[in-house]
Amino acid sequence: MDNNTHQKFSDVRKLFPHTDKIVYFNSGSYGPFCLPVRQAIDDNVAIRLAAESDDSHDAFATRDELRGIYASMIGADECEIGIGASTSFGLNIAAFGLPLEPGDEVIVSDVEFPAIVYCWRAAAEARQLKLVFVESTDRQFDLDKFRNAITDRTKVLALSWVQYFDGYKNDLAEIGAICREHGIYFVVDGIQGMGTEPIDVHDLKLDLFTSGCQKWMLAPQGCAFFYLSKELQKILTPPFMSWLGVDWKMNFTDLFQYDLPYFESAAKYELGYYAVLNLLGMKAASQLFLDLGIDNIGAHNHALIDRLAAYIKGSSFYRITSSMEEKHRSSLFTFSCDNLKQLHRHILKQGIILVQREGSIRVSVHLFNNESDIDRLIDALDTFSQS
Ligand SMILES: Cc1ncc(COP(=O)(O)O)c(C=O)c1O
Question: What is the extent of the structural domain holding 124?
Answer without folding.
Answer: 40-290
